[in-house]
Please model this.
Amino acid sequence: MIEEIKLIVKTALGQENIDIANNKDLVFLRIKIARLGHFTTNASFLLAKKNGTSPMEEAEKLKSKIIQTSPAGYFEKIEIVNGYINFFVSEKTINESFKKISSAGASWGDSKIGAGQRVIVEYGSPNIGKPLHFGHLRSTIIGQALFNIYKSQGYKAISWSHPGDWGKQFGIMIAAYKEKARAGEKVELSIDEFLKLYVDYNFRMKNDPRLEEIAREETRKLQYGDKENARLWKKIYNLSMGEFSRIIKQLGVRFDVNNGESFYKPFLKRIVDVALDRGIAIRSEGAVIIPLEEENLPPFIIQKSDEAYLYTTTDIAAAKYRLEKYKADKILYVVGAEQYLHFEQLFAVLKKLGYLKNQELVHVKFGLVLGEDSKKLSTRAGKHISLSEVIDEAVSKAAVILSEKAPEIQKHEREKTAQIIGIDSLKYNDLSQNRLSNIVFNWDKMLSFEGIAAPYLLYTYARLRSILRKAGAKKIVSGEFEAESEQKLILKLDAFPDAVRLAADNFYPHTIAVYLYELSEAINNFYHTENVLNAESSIRASRLALVNTASIVLKKGLNLLGLETVERL
RNA sequence: GCCCCCGUAGUUCAAUGGAUAGAACGAGGGACUUCUAAUCCCCAAAUAGGGGUUCGAUUCCUCUCGGGGGCACCA
Model:
């Protein structure tokens, strides 16, 4: 409806106010206070400023214009309050809107805005060799949601994982492994064992520069093709990727492309050579750096003084590859905010090197997961919360609650349902808040199934499905709605595309998450006040159509966020 | 020292520069012979502080305070 109202107002503004109509400050809003109306615009304020008159005066003039030019019966009334022009749409308009939404069905909220554009979403990139810690959940979940959202907006979206499988952590693990092996100790080849080795070595390295030296040397050897190190690397890589795929699958996430840092090793030398040849990079203190003084940034080191490469080098190669080979128009890097500077530098360097032209590169940053002490959780420091542990905890807690509240659900369905509730809860907990804030890790909060949490949404959905099951299959796409709760629900359904657009524009999945909570409120309110199955036949038919449409939109929204639904709860 | 992010009820979070700043949890009270009570209804409580821009500021600018992160060979 909001698009229709936009058009009506712009038409009424006429040619003489084309500047106002095109002004980006002209806004159309859904009114939050129900008694004031459904929609409003600030056009009168802009007109008053332009003409040196009062908003009230301009509002009156514009209102009579709108009454003349708008389709008959579109508005129930138009009121002017404090200079705002407030629109009350008519019942007929609401019914029309419903028809549109229910016909669109699962495509409601989609758009073609991104048609012909390719967007690569990089997320969920683990550091190979270390088990996934809880912090990885954020990137994975936010990234997957953005990927889904962009796809729904008509983009050709590519989900891309960029595992850190080529860096110094391997040098450290290899060094630690060899140290043990030399001492004649048998090393169990498991992911946990390698983590222990890593943490321990890293800790000792702080006080012993010799160990640091050894690790660095192992890294260099690996990068320059040492056989033994390559063999160890492969071992750790396989262990780690197995673990990664298992968890990713459990989370319902998948990647179109899975090119780790090691994938780019054939390109690294050339990246450095070209940068040097063009005079963009220089040698400094034995290393190769790209100075970024003009950009007011610290220099970007692309090769170490021992000739090993860094993730900076890999990132340049990866970006070049995506821009040139994959012809990406947009790349979203869903990576923690602590890498802010790195991406500022990377984007500046890509421009300098001419790889980045008018494509859009965005660092979609998110806050850290902090420990209970409000300090960063770090694997290096041995502060580690295992992601798979958190997932298991969430699922088993869901199973307990499920058996209390819905004992009638059969065993095999119960396990599946507990999985979905547990995982959805973790995801929703993260997705429902602005990604920029830090999160303090807290078991209770993380696994809370009360209030604004996934079970509320899942329950709402299950209720709708239950009504539809009982009603039997019938397909109705329109209806007459008079009850207040019905109209409120339709207005809420009508707002879904706004939430999706906002999420896409700002890379904010939480706008959808918050919207879905509000939608569920409207749904719960509706079926508490109005009976569906026992209503008189024409009303029953209309309400069933509403229930059906609401369930489709709710499911669609949940799916955009990467959440699954259950049929009963 | 410089740079970035954050600061909203007791707590965890909302609010594309718009009206009377919304929820949830927690505390208290109420609603199931009728489509699932993981639901619904009622009730108290907040913009860190100072300037500025604006018809209008939680939102933009600026200073101060507080929390977090980053700043040459980790990712």
Q: What stands out?
A: Residues 227-250 of chain A form the longest helix (24 residues).
